Structures are given as C-alpha cells and as structure tokens.
Amino acid sequence: MKIAIAGSGALGSGFGAMLYRQGYDVTLIDGWEPQATAVKKDGLHIDINGEQHHLNIPMYQDTEIPKDAKYDVIFLFTKAMQLHDMLQHIQSHIHDNTIMVCTMNGLKHERKIANYVDEARIVRGVTTWTAGLESPGHTHLMGAGPVEIGALVEEGQPNVDTVFDILEKAKLNPHKSEDLQQSIWKKICVNGTANALCTILECRLSNLNESDYARKLVYKITQEIVQVATVDGVHLNADEVYNYLIDLNDKVGPHFPSMYQDLINNNRLTEIDYINGAVAKLGAEHHIEAPVNQFVANMVHAKEEQRHAK
Amino acid sequence: MKIAIAGSGALGSGFGAMLYRQGYDVTLIDGWEPQATAVKKDGLHIDINGEQHHLNIPMYQDTEIPKDAKYDVIFLFTKAMQLHDMLQHIQSHIHDNTIMVCTMNGLKHERKIANYVDEARIVRGVTTWTAGLESPGHTHLMGAGPVEIGALVEEGQPNVDTVFDILEKAKLNPHKSEDLQQSIWKKICVNGTANALCTILECRLSNLNESDYARKLVYKITQEIVQVATVDGVHLNADEVYNYLIDLNDKVGPHFPSMYQDLINNNRLTEIDYINGAVAKLGAEHHIEAPVNQFVANMVHAKEEQRHAK
After folding, report:
1. Which chain A residues are closer than 8 Å to B211 by Cβ?
2. ipTM, two decimals
3. Which terminus of chain B, N or C, has fewer Cβ atoms within 10 Å?
4. Chain segment B268-302, per-residue pLDDT in tens
5. Do A295 and B220 touch (CB under 8 A)?
6. Model pTM?
7. How near does any CA of chain B get to the CA of A190, in Å?
8. Which residues of B117-260 form beta strands (DSSP E)?
C-alpha cells in the first residue's frame, strides 16, 4: 500500500514519520521548496514527544512527483489556502480507489476534495495532535491525539475502517467519530475562538480565561457558530460548548495557538477564511447571520495587512 | 457671570484658559488631586496651538469647592465614567438658572445631567478641539474647533444663545448645530470607528485607511450605529458617513486617537462603554441589534483587563 502525505510541513511530516516507522511505504510531498530540498538531502529530523528521530523518508516537491506514481491513501495536510493547488498537483497520482484523508482544521474542505474523488473515498476528521517546524527538515510532533475520523456517506465506512487500521498500527490513536459533523463543528468552535482571539489580542490561551470580557468574546463567537452549525444538522448547546472551551483553555494555558504563531511570530497569512470566515459564509448561504465571525475574520485580515504577512 | 469648568484635564483646562484670557470669571475643578495641587501651586501652563501661556486660574479639587460657591455656567469636561461623581460634587453649587454645557464624547450624558437641572438648561454639543495633558498643571490645546452646540428642547434656545456668545468671545469657534442629534451621532460614528479600531489594532488613523479589511471594519461598525441612530430620529446614510470617516482619517492621518492614548500609552480605562457600548445598549432598548458594537466594546474591555488599566 502506497501512502502519500500531501503537505508535509509540521503536522504532515509528523504523521508521515509515525507511519514510516511502522514500515508503511510513505512518500512526503510538500509545496515549500526548502522543506523538500532539506529532507531529500538529509532526511527528516523529528522530535516525537521528546524523542529524537532521523528518518530517510522519500520526499518530493509537489511539482516533481514522478509521472507514473499512484498512491492508495493520501493524507492531506496543507494549510487550508494551499489545498486547491496541492489537489491540482496530485490529481494525476490518484487511482480509482485512492482514499483521501483530510483532518485539516476548517470547514467544507470536502467540497474541494470531491472535485477529485467521490465522497465515499473521502475520510474526514479532526485531530488534536500538535506539531511545529523549527527549520526546513526539522520538525516536532507532540501530544497523543486522538485523530477522530468518519465517513461523509454510508458507503465510505469501509474506507474509514482501512484508515483506522493504518492509524492504529502507527500509534496515532484513531477514534471513529460517532458524529463526524459534530466533531468538525466542535473543532471549529475551538479554533474560531482560541485562534482568532489570541491572535487579535496577542495573548496566550490562559489569558482569555483570566478576563471576564474575553470570555464574553468567546461566548458570542461560539453562539454564532452553534447557530450556523445547524445547517449541517449539528445541534450543539452554546453553554456546554462554552464551558468545554474554557476548560480546554485552562488545560493548555501557556500555549500560543497556531494562528498566533503563524501571524504574530512568523508573519504568515492565517487560515481565518476557513474558520470564522467560513462560518460567516456558510451562514450567509443559509440566511443565518454571523456578523461577529465575519468581523473577526476581517480583523485578523486587517492585522495581516498591517504586518505585511505573506 | 461665574463660570466653572467641571473636569479640568486636557480639554477642560484648554476651554478654561481660553475663557479666562477673555476676562471671564473662571474656576477650574477636577477630581484628580495632582492636577488640582499643581495648578493651585503654580498656575496652569498651557500651550495653545504652539503659543505658551502661564495663567493663574483659580482651581479646586472636586472635594473642596467652597460651600457657598454658585456658578452660572458649568462646562462639563470629565471622562464619561467620572461624570456621575462630578455631578454629585457640583450639585450644591448649581442655582435655579445655572446652565450646564456638555460637549463630551459619548451618548446620552443628558440623561444623567437631567437629574440635576431641567432639560432646557442643558446645552449639548460636540467639539473637534483636541487637547493633551503632559503632566499635572501642563497641558496643550490644538485645532480651531468648531464647538457645535444646540438645545435639547425648544425652551433651551436662549441658553444656547448665551453659551454661543461666551464661546465666540473666547474665540472657541462656536456653531449652532442645525440638527443637534445628528451632530452627536456623527461624532459617535467617528469615535466608534477610529477610537475603537486604532485601540484594538494599535495603529494610527491613516493605517485604517491603508487596509481594505480595516475599512470593512469601519463600514460595519458605522452601519450598525446608523441603524441605532434612528431611535433618536437621526437618519444618516451609511455610505455617506463611511466616506466622510475615510476622508477624515486621511486628514488626521498620523494622529493616534484619544482612546489609544488613554489605553495603550497611559494604561487608563477607556470611554468605550459610552461610545460603542452605549450604541449597543441603546439599540437593545429599542430592539435594534448591534452585535459588532457590543463585541468591539468587550474587546476593548478585554484589552483593559489584559493591561490592568486603571
């Protein structure tokens, strides 16, 4: 079974390393030339929960995948705004039974992926594994997961089983989600509050909990997300989700969320359009207003412009 | 005619100085002990549009106004959150015909003032004079106004005429507002966008114009304010107000608005509850939602808490 990791930055190379160490035939693919060059030349140096590993995993830049290469399972791990380009690059390497796995943050990636494979071959999910990239070829993977996965349509269930087995053998701690859409929307609540607010207020997750007013911001964003989630048949209780989020912020207190790291530390564009922006857009499609989520997305974009983020 | 300036910080002492220089019997009053002590000891040092003045204007801290003192005209120039306390301190110094002048930023200060004098004796307005306080006893006044004033009720017109004459003699450039409520709401649009956004994004007014997304934030806040303004019979066109605001930001480009100076430079609490917060609250009283203004108010409060502002 040939596995490709399409998007082998921080989290992608982490998953790739875990799979490779179990003996899977893994190929890393990434659009960022320095990362591809470094791994091709000197392998992947990865710290997995404090343990150092040096792995010679095959790697291609997305523009140089061998013409005849076909993959059976493709894990998508790009930044949300790079997904379209990556799908274009890998489309000729998909065969009739290729399974596409997407546990990326954000809403409705499956709409894009469904242009390339039918819905039954898309395994969608969310994960709480976290990762970072120190320099090209040097990354780390932290946590214990889980990876929650599920099928978009009933016929996709066997493919979920296949991916579950792969992830389980690789100790990536898979769970079969009892309600895939609910798992996705709960993760949107996490990212739509913590990522956006820590980036705007330039603070740690614990700082949100310390402020009565920041907690009101968390609540208001959550309330709108919960309303829009109903269009996917997901019925969350805003108070319950809010309490879950506050509890989560306590647990990961000193951490700066990934969006903060992208924009404030590294001056990179954020995924805000796929989180709060996507909530507002999906809401608008169904006549459910989410003005605060749209405002938050524009606020983060204003900060990107202010900082000339790329 | 005895005139008191109730709230003699930056702008109040500026108005006081202009009146005093025309020979008016002016008394400065302020709640901040260092300011009162400095002016009592060594007079007011004030820079008026680049000219230095040293004026021995009588000054009292608000707790030590002589018991029998009565004032004919009282200009209110406190921070919005200090207005209630100041009114308590000066109430025994108001006589049956005292005129109260309020050109402070923010909505509905007249509701508080009307607990002390009837509406006909309140002269309400807005001003574009700007001022600053370098240290106790040392301030500056900049600009050329105008001060737009008007009556809340028809019977108040003679009092507007009286205040107009005083301001005109003192070269404070008064205008009689053709539509007082409209003037107030236009100023709310200015403060609700420029002050709030420059404080959240920590930027200059010109920076708002440079960003497509910051301009969207300006537009959205304005749109909600215009909707709420209808409860006061004020009908503004959101596009026209938006163009006026963008034009204004261009003109005063390098300037940091007063709220930015309060919170970011001086770690002081802001007047946000009397601007965006007041818009949301007044809207709620009349079943007009203004979620973005409420969110902006909570965001500024979260920043106040983060910075332990006082």
Report:
1. 301-302, 305-306
2. 0.89
3. C
4. 999 999 999 999 999 999 999 999 999 999 999 99
5. yes
6. 0.90
7. 18
8. 122-127, 130-135, 138-142, 147-151, 174-176
